[in-house]
Amino acid sequence: MNDSTVLWYKQPAENWDEALPIGNGRLGAMVFGGVHKERYQLNEDSVWSGGPRQRNNKSAIKNLDRVRTLIKEEKIPQAEKLILKAFCGTPVNQRHYMPLGDLEIEQSFEPDEEVRDYVRALDVENAVLSVSFKIGDIEYKRECIASYPDEVMAVKYCASKGESVNLRINIDGRDDYFDDNSPVSEDMILYRGGSGGEDGINFASVIKVIPSGGSVHSIGSSLVAQGCDEVVVLICAQTSYRYPDYREKAFFDIENLVGKSFERIKKDHIADYRRYYDRMSLTLNGNSSESLPTDKRLERVRQKGKADNKLFELYLNFGRYLMISGSRKGSLPLNLQGIWNKDMWPAWGSRFTININTQMNYWPAEVCNLSELHTPLFDLIEKMRPNGRLTAREMYNCGGFVAHHNTDLWGDTAPQDLWLPATSWPMGAAWLCLHIWEHYKFTQDKEFLDKKYDTLKEAAEFFVDYLIENDDGKLVTCPSTSPENTYITRSGTKGSVCIGPSMDSQILYELFTAVIEAGKILGRGEVFGKKLCEMRSLLPAPEIGKYGQIKEWAEDYDEEEPGHRHISQLFALYPADMISVRKTPELAKAARATILRRLSHGGGHTGWSRAWITNMWARLFDGEKVYENLVALLSYSTNPNMFDSHPPFQIDGNFGGAAAIVEALVQSENDELILLPARPEEWHEGEVKGVLARGGFEVSFKFCGDSVSAEIISKAGNVLKIAAPESARIETSLGAEVKEYTDKAFVIMTEKGARVKIKY
To answer: For residue 61, what pLDDT is reported?
Structure first.
């Protein structure tokens, strides 16, 4: 087995946290690998609990000034009591994600003897899942794929001896919700159901069994294949969210595959998948000391506190696999669990939690050369805009559009939950829109930026109306929170709702900057840009508090939980670049103190929090802390199937961890390229290919210790500023020229397509 591209195990999964995922962006399955009974726990990304609705609490407007006064007077309990009544969503909850069902395939064997040589494997290089084992003198094998081009999940069962494949196929598994799983022919089941109601989402899934040799027939709600040489099972699904004729579309998807072999479906699937996967790669020195299954490798990390470097490669490759498999053109973006959810009532609704988790899902998208897979998030933002306008107007009497800390597939923007540390936080849309700006910074796609300028502008317009002056003449949000923390005032009062939390000002600085700069690039919005420049100058800047830390609130409050999982005040360090070692060393020192304070009180105890902290250490150029925290992520927050554990499973930690591995090797914040900024000593030698950098550059390089040999391709013709020793040797192709060496970095003029080689 390739120890950097294959997850593999010597036994079936005993539970969901050991099962393996496949997906095509829209359809997903967790595959358990049972011998006698295989379970494919199915999802379709638009199977949610209900239809669209407006939940804006219209009592908010008439109570907004009262709440602000109470907060200013530090009458926090009274303010929070009023917020729970007047500022919550009505009803309280948004829609939640739901599973499609459980496809079960029972396999019988004759004779039924001891199972030998069992292997369950997920090849993330080709996106193919396989199960193989021997019973008697017969070897049995299954292959499972989820194809984007053919919109199908396909499973092939075969055996080394003819007429040995005997299966019973059925589908169910949605608790007490009404579903119908009746065969509609001797080789096909129509499985349909939904969330009910006029506005609910209904689905239809068609399962077709194609035998080679032998026979297939229906009995009850099952299909039975007997005496076959091999059997292919095709699964298609569609919903009323996308198609009024969703049932007909599901049948069409199946019928469209008539005459197409499994091998052809597989070949097209691999070709499509590898268009993305092959764009970048990471190779680190060393090999696994022995060929161990993935769960045993993870156990060894927990026991010894050190990982083999190929496991880090596998973790990154698995993260890229999850993005390619879970976020495609036309799909919904990755929610708390991607497209892999087993529960009718999942934790936190498996929604889009937009006070960090959804954003973290897309941190690797640009750097890992998967820019197109970022677009489902942009589609969701557009869906949120009309709802966000209503929320802005009906709850706050503001222009623009706003969203709080959660949204759903309908783009709901009203507050979610009745939980003071999180509910009354109006920054969700603002942070999401920064992904638009990041996408532009990496791709330099002016056509995209032109289409999205109004979205950026509208997100900023809300805060033109919403911000108020504090006692120091600064512009601040109110009410808001520092997600999802609680502070203690000097009088001992505990509260979450506040005025001007640090993260809000940092997000707004970045958002206003994005709108200002986008306007200059496009020649648009000059008047509005000038207004934002004035407002930006009045935003509070990051400040250092009494513990040498970056202050989390406008007042230097203590936290109720000093080891809290959110470190919101360090948004300025990562994913933003307002704090950096090279540009703001004192603030960087305070950021370090902030992380150490959190960790000393038990922070980093959830997977996504540990992943965020690892990215922060990378930005602080601390390779050993990067390594230490990646090992902690693998030791305490990674399930046997390599899914991140909050607990329970949340996929954001996988993407945050993948981003951190790349961030340790390549950074491009503050308009300069830095190679090996936080390389751990354990990563002594290696090669990076095809990583993208801001400014429109593609970067590949080899390294040994601190020595580097790199090639950078200019994809947009921008100025390249690369930090390197002055003694570095530089070769440029036609269209590139070294202009100067300043601030320990080379400034190189480039034209589109030019190549720069640098060695030191």
So the answer is: 97
Sheet order of strands, 20-23 included:
20-23, 27-31, 37-44, 101-107, 165-172, 222-228, 215-219
Does a structural domain hold residue 457?
yes
Please list the alpha-helical segments (H only) found in 637-676: 652-663
Strand, helix or coil at 143? Answer: strand
Question: CA 602, 607, 609: angle at the middle one, nearest 5?
Answer: 60
Q: Is residue 92 classed exposed, middle or buried when 0-12, 13-18 and 19+ CB atoms within 10 A define those classes? A: middle
Q: What is the pTM of this model?
A: 0.97
Check whether residue 341 and residue 376 sit in a common domain.
yes
Q: In this structure, are 568 and 556 located in the same domain?
A: yes
Chain mean pLDDT for the chain:
96
Do 259 and 332 belong to one domain? no
Q: Which residues of 608-627 are buried (b: 16+ CB within 10 A; e: fewer)?
A: bbbbbbbbbbbbbbbbebbb
468-469 and 475-476 strand pairing = antiparallel
Judge whether 268 lies within some domain: yes
Residues 531 and 401 in one domain: yes
| CA pair distance 49, 538, nearest whole angstrom | 43
Number of domains in the chain: 4
659 in the same domain as 512: no
**Same domain as 191, residue 131:** yes
Domain boundary among 554, 569, 603: 603
Query: Which secondary structure element, helix H or strand E, spans residue 79, and what is its range?
Result: helix 76-86
pLDDT tens digits, residue range 572-603?
999 999 999 999 999 999 999 999 999 999 99
For residues 306 and 383, state if they share a domain: no
* Residue span of the structural domain in which 576 resides: 60-90+327-603
Q: What is the pLDDT of residue 289?
A: 56
Q: Which of 209, 208, 214, 287 is nearest to 250 (CA)?
A: 208
pLDDT in tens, 171-180: 998 877 767 8
Distances (CA, A) of 473 to 65, 467, 476, 493, 538: 18, 11, 9, 25, 7
Q: How far apart are CA 430 and CA 441, in angstroms?
A: 17
Residue written as token pair 């013709």 = 717
Q: Are residues 444 and 334 in the same domain?
A: yes
Q: Got the DSSP string for 156-205?
A: EEEESSTT-EEEEEEEE--TTS-EEEEEEETTEEEEEEES-STTS-EEEE
